[in-house]
UniProtKB/TrEMBL annotation, chain B:
It is a multi-pass membrane protein. This is Carbohydrate ABC transporter permease. Signal peptide: none annotated. Residues 70-261 form the ABC transmembrane type-1 domain. InterPro entries: MetI-like, MetI-like_sf. Keywords: Cell membrane, Membrane, Transmembrane, Transmembrane helix, Transport. The chain crosses the membrane at residues 12-32, 74-98, 105-129, 141-161, 182-207, 240-261. It is found in: Cell membrane. PANTHER family: ABC TRANSPORTER PERMEASE PROTEIN MG189-RELATED, ABC TRANSPORTER PERMEASE PROTEIN MG189-RELATED-RELATED. Belongs to the binding-protein-dependent transport system permease family.
Amino acid sequence: MPSSVVAPAKDPAEKRTGGAVPVHSHAPARSLPRGLGSWASIAWFLVPALVLFLVFVLAPIAVAVHTSFFKWGGIGSMDDFVGFENYTRLFADQVFLGDMGRGLYLIVLSITVQLPFALFTAVLLNQKLRGRAVYRMLFFAPYILSEVVTAVLFTMIFLPGDGMADHLAGALGLEGLQGKWLADPSTVMPTLFVVMTWKYFGFHMMLLLAGLQSIPREILDAASIDGAGAWQRFRYVMLPLLGPTIRISVFLSVIGAIQLFDLVWVMTAGGPNHSSETMAISMFQFGFKRYQVGYASAISVVLFMISLVFSLFYQRYVLRRDLSGAVTTGGGR
Amino acid sequence: MNARRTARGLSLHAVVWLIAAFVVVPLIYAVISGFKSTGELTTNPFGLPEQWKTGNYTGILGDGMFWRQIANSAGIAIGTTFCTLAASAMAAFVLARYAFRGRELFYTLFTIGLMFPFAVAVLPLFLLLRNFDLLDNPLGVILPQAAFGLPMTIIILRGFFRTIPAEVEEAAVMDGCGKFRFFWKILLPMARPALGTVSVLAIVASWNNFFLPLLVFNDPKWQTIPVGVQQFQGQYSTDYALVLAYIVLAMVPALAFYVVAERQLIGGLTAGATKG
């Protein structure tokens, strides 16, 4: 569930519940641990999570950094120290630079096409519309399917010659597209993006719907009374109030695009001729197919640095104003 | 006025229908194609099958491999959920309800985990698992998945644990209840809705994971459904109808689970993302 990766932030629970919270970051605690016994029992509660986290989340990062300084095939002793050579090679590699460009391409399309589409659908389903609960459930359904199942489904649909897409293009007089789709470097990225939109727009729609539903009725009514039309209500009331949700949605799209693997690996394996390769695919190719594990580790580290820098930057400058008193609250309870 | 309203309602419906078609047509295409032969798929791509062939579906359902993959996926999902929940609930409990030195540091450490995409860690994770001798072992998938599930689960559970009034705990302590008994006998049962939400998220994440099982399991007997789907496609790449039937059957458990757990799932995802 890559898309549920979100920015860490202070939990707003304390604001929502007011005085009901017993312990609070700076407030004096009621049950301050006294003596060693208490400390030990707290440690006992923390240890399982801490161990899991250190061993399987933090240690791999350290291993990747270490390995990235060696030329290593993956087996035997790691003794060929090469310094930053893997990194210099990486940033001279046209395919890897292309990977970053393609990541950016998907991010830009997600924000300029998929997000507005999701927003449009959310606004549509926020109205009184017969069967809207069914539509909502339907539009979200692709999100539940694994990327692999989605990828195989669309591989079949975009199959050159026999796929549904080719038949459809023929019927619509778009013969130029026939046989291309995932098979041609000029069309593979847009096609991939269509599949991503199919799978993910419903998730963003749900986020935005939760945001829309948390906008108090009275504000919209007041705007109507002041003579605001439907468009003005949307542009000057809903859109600003949806700001925090939209910013989260953008964050998730970016993180998703940075680590995209399953969908692309199954549909094209990065082809034809690297034209749909992503950073994660490059890493996999070098690490597990070509046995250049040191080099692949350097890719992992760069991938990590990109997500880290982006997350920190985004939280510091974009999400900061949302962290206190975001308009959206959880739909769960 | 009335006519205009009707016209507006109609066009609204037309737009929604169009979007619905975009979502549903690929799925229906797959279901119907599964009832055709691959030959018919070429000659009659859109129509209903001339004769409904059930052989593709029954053939897969009669194959032990398919059920094996379903069972593997289910077992790994349950194991992952159990580990994530146990470790997270304990940590979230002390992080939510006790003041101790370094508490915020620990909490921040866990939340930092949200910034690590799984794809980043997968190669060094593979090297580690190989050292631990956890390849071709379900624990090699369960433990990392549980670890990567911790941040989100701890955030959601800590938020929930904090909403339980201190008076409840004071009353329990007054009655001679220790920390662990309070956690186990009172807090966890009270937190059932939140536990439900995080379980559903963990199950779905585990069920759909592809990258890690692909690397960890070499032996086909451990393959999970996503890996199985990919292998099947590779193996029968020219028998399109059969491949489509396979993915339709692979979708069924996920969609059934969605229908049952829709509220927790959507609630959890939107809460997790916006609350973060």
